[in-house]
Input
Amino acid sequence: LAKTTQPISMDSYEGQEVNITCSHNNIATNDYITWYQQFPSQGPRFIIQGYKTKVTNEVASLFIPADRKSSTLSLPRVSLSDTAVYYCLVGESDYKLSFGAGTTVTVRA
Amino acid sequence: DAGVIQSPRHEVTEMGQEVTLRCKPISGHNSLFWYRQTMMRGLELLIYFNNNVPIDDSGMPEDRFSAKMPNASFSTLKIQPSEPRDSAVYFCASSVQGTSGVNEQFFGPGTRLTVL
Output
């Protein structure tokens, strides 16, 4: 399993952009980068996935540099409801993923 | 679709008792996962089924834990006998397994287990 490193916590304010960088220096050729979000007392929820370059959906953007040794999840204009734990996962198949400790993002008014 | 359904949502039992957690995956999904989440260890994969067959159970902590998937719409995770250290939130997730790559997992609401 590729090891991932992400900040333990981040604070932000409503309306700001939040960028969470995940380091995965030993990512393998067949590995994908996937991000999940988890609210308190709920199961994780898929946010976005990418292999290289940039991916954007209605919720977030994922930036992956050419060497793929890191990735950045970007949450535009966060609101209080974006307060959650965000997990960066790297792997080549569904059952070869590790959720790790995640990044607790706290959005304040 | 109702999403992944888990029951019970909360379970309180005494040490030594048998506990059975249940999961109904999303219809049409062919992969099912059981996870355990604690403050100390985070979210851990216990077992993974594909087309009702256990593919990887390396995360099952010990012989007290067992999981079955008798059909595509039902799975159980059993702990016998239960111990206080089994207290955790247990999540079931399902996905559609494609030919390759990583697929989006849909998680259930979880079962909060407390073993006294």
Remarks:
- Chain B is about 0% helix and 55% strand.
- Chain B has a mean pLDDT of 94.
- The interface with chain A takes residues 4, 31, 33, 42-45, 48, 55-56, 91, 93, 95, 97, 100-110 of chain B (CB under 8 Å).
- The radius of gyration of chain B is 14 Å.
